[in-house]
Write a structure and sequence with these properties.
This protein is mostly beta strands and 93 residues long. The chain contains no helices and ten strands. A six-stranded antiparallel β-sheet has the order 1-2-3-10-5-8, with no helix packed on it. A four-stranded antiparallel β-sheet has the order 4-9-6-7, with no helix packed on it. Strand 1 and strand 2 form a beta hairpin. The two termini are 20 Å apart.
């Protein structure tokens, strides 16, 4: 069974599912600035568009484009800027 999630007044939407090895979500983001918190280690891969991310304990922003992945450890928060509509795949460990 799929679970759907909606955040930031519908500007971020995701569908949760189970891969062969890990739980995952596939989602979309409208243009905007967001802050997310983690409860598990997350591997976030941009599947279209681009996301500019400020990772925990970092003072700089990094831009990730299609096919690029960033990792956020559990129980932390990170900031994301989406300048174009973008999609992502997130695996949880």
């Amino acid at each position: 069974m799929f679970a759907t999630n909606e955040y930031f007044d519908g500007k971020v939407k995701s569908i949760a599912f189970q891969t062969e090895t890990l739980p995952a979500t596939i989602g979309v983001m409208r243009q905007g600035d967001y802050e997310f918190g983690t409860s598990q280690k997350e591997y976030m891969t941009v599947t279209s568009g681009r996301l500019t991310v400020k990772l925990p304990d970092s003072d700089t922003w990094a831009t990730f484009t299609q096919g690029e992945t960033f990792i956020v450890e559990a129980n932390l928060s990170f900031q994301v800027k989406a300048e174009v509509e973008s999609s992502y795949l997130c695996l949880y460990e």
